[in-house]
Write a structure and sequence with these properties.
The chain is of the alpha/beta class. The chain has helices at about 15-25, 45-55, 70-85, 100-120, 135-145, 160-165, 190-200, 215-220, 260-265, 290-325, 350-360, 385-395, and strands spanning about 95, 125-130, 145-150, 170-175, 200-205, 235-240, 250-255, 265-270, 275-280, 330, 340-345, 365, 370-375. Bound molecules: pyridoxal-5'-phosphate (PLP). Pyridoxal-5'-phosphate binds near residues 133, 135, 206 and 252.
Length: about 400
């Protein structure tokens, strides 16, 4: 082995740390409130410190066998119970996962199993609007389902008529978003779920973004279109704790109306010289730190804390959207239901404006239709700065430098 590819002798811990610090010099600075995806600044140093402390203390545990770690079993049960209370279903009707992608995977997987065993469908499809998150396409790709995507309506929401037309005998699952990532609008879930139910098809609501935010907006008196299990026909929901639940990366929840559906997820394997193997989610060995951190965040904030965070996020959203719409030719696209939106200019080159914003130190995401932002509590401190830099960028932009539209956006 060459010393460059594999260190021959170890180096002192201090050197390891200083090398890493240097390597991280070019990383996104999420604390500044100048980035709009990937990491969420809850603007709460005490919360941040607590989840770090708890996470560190659970670094070495393994959630694979909950019976060896009663604390982890309790932690997962408590997180699931809290999540199910938010979306109005039974306390044990779900699992913790590693993120939104795994939650969606498991929802697609359980739907495939139901379609096969109860309806005899060998080549199932999933129907969703084109705005559905790529994790659904990824799950279909891995799990051998065909994703049928339908155009959105003029309001950028899923079009129930087109969804209805795309459902056929092979359809295992219809997916709606609450809200979708590109435009932050909530699909018409009651109409979609009713269509799915009338055709004997399961209906998943991807509330990875909204699951830990919309319930608190509702309590604050915001107009939130119906999206959770109170809507008849919704059979499963994904909700990420590592977004608006303010946990650090690695925790989401997948939740079901019917607690028996959770059992569809379980993988049990007895014919093995190593003995009985059982696992509720896709991972084998399960890291515990993120779940423990999430548990601590939920305890620390409580309903009141989450409501305060939600009001801070909506304060930031009101400030940003008013500032954007006040600039001549600039507008937020559609009528976002939460704190996530696309915006752009109908007269100037929106991407050239984004480039000038980069020069000002902002890290706006680009998508095909414009610039994209997702707001968190800290952003309310930078409303004025953002709006004046944006006005400057609109007045003084040149040619677009051709940055590609990439999700999570800070394109190279
Ligand atoms: C973030 C997100 C996902 C995927 O979640 P990961 O945690 O990144 O795997 C799915 N759907 C929506 C709407 C999202 O915003």
């Amino acid at each position: 082995m060459t010393s460059e590819r594999f260190p021959h002798s170890g180096v002192p811990a201090a050197d390891v740390l200083s090398t890493l610090a240097e390597m991280r010099g070019g990383d996104l600075d999420w604390r500044s409130g100048r980035s709009f995806s990937l990491v969420y600044n809850p603007d709460d140093p005490e919360l941040e410190h607590l989840v770090e402390q708890v996470g560190t203390s659970f670094l070495h545990e393994n959630g694979l066998n909950p019976f060896k770690y009663p604390s982890l079993q309790q932690i997962e049960a408590d997180i699931v119970s809290a999540a199910t209370a938010l979306v109005h279903t039974e306390p044990m009707a779900g699992s913790c996962t590693s993120g939104g992608t795994e939650s969606l995977f498991l929802a697609v997987y359980t739907a495939r199993e139901v379609a096969r065993s109860e309806r005899g469908i060998d080549h199932p499809t999933v129907v969703a609007a084109e705005t559905v998150h790529p994790a659904v396409a990824k799950a279909c790709h891995y799990l051998g389902l065909e994703l049928v995507r339908t155009p959105v309506a003029a309001d950028l929401r899923a079009d129930p008529e087109r969804i209805a037309a795309a459902i056929d005998d092979r359809t295992a699952l219809v997916v709606g978003s609450a809200p979708c990532y590109p435009y932050g609008v909530i699909d018409p879930i009651p109409a979609i779920a009713a269509i799915a139910a009338s055709r004997g098809v399961l209906c998943h609501v991807d509330a990875c973004l909204g699951g830990w935010m919309l319930p608190f907006m509702e309590r604050l008196g915001h107009q939130v279109p119906p999206w959770d299990f109170r809507v008849e026909g919704v059979t499963s929901i994904s909700a990420d704790v590592h977004k608006y639940g303010y946990a650090f990366k690695g925790v989401s929840t997948v939740l079901y109306r019917d607690p028996a559906m959770v059992r569809r997820q379980w993988f049990l394997y007895s014919d093995w010289p190593g003995g009985l193997y059982g696992s509720p989610t896709t991972a084998g060995t399960r890291p515990a730190a993120a779940m423990a951190g999430a548990w601590a965040a939920i305890r620390f904030l409580g309903e009141e804390g989450y409501m305060t965070k939600a009001s801070q996020v909506m304060e930031a959203t009101a400030g940003f959207t008013a500032g954007i719409n006040a600039i001549d030719s600039m507008a937020v696209h559609g009528d976002p239901d939460m704190s996530v939106f696309e915006f752009g200019s109908d007269r100037y080159d929106t991407f050239a404006i984004g480039d000038v914003m980069d020069d000002h130190g902002w890290n706006l995401d680009r998508q095909p239709g414009g610039l994209h932002a997702m707001l968190f509590p800290y952003h309310r401190h930078v409303i004025d700065e953002f709006c004046s830099d944006l006005a400057d960028a609109v007045a003084n932009h040149g040619e677009s430098r051709g940055k590609a539209a990439t999700y999570g956006g800070v394109a190279p």
